[in-house]
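re: ur question from earlier - yeah i can do the single chain one, its not a big deal. heres the input i used so u can compare w yours
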Amino acid sequence: MITTHIELAKVFVRLDQPMKVIDCYNLGLKSHIGETHLTTGIARVHDLLNDPTKSISFYKQVLQIDNSNIEAIA
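and the output i got, formated as tokens:
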């Protein structure tokens, strides 16, 4: 389930383990291809890691799937 991956990623964020968060989201994307919530989560983590190039690329992927996503537009 998508919500399970999102909640597990929140736990890893609280534990300050960003690479585990990305791995959790990628594992969810393997079973739920094209899910914007998971891709947005990866973009958020890269944004928190001060890696704007990767963050922007993931936000662009979100916009290709859902062109009305407000967070990706901003």
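The chain has one domain: 2-73. not sure if urs matches, ping me
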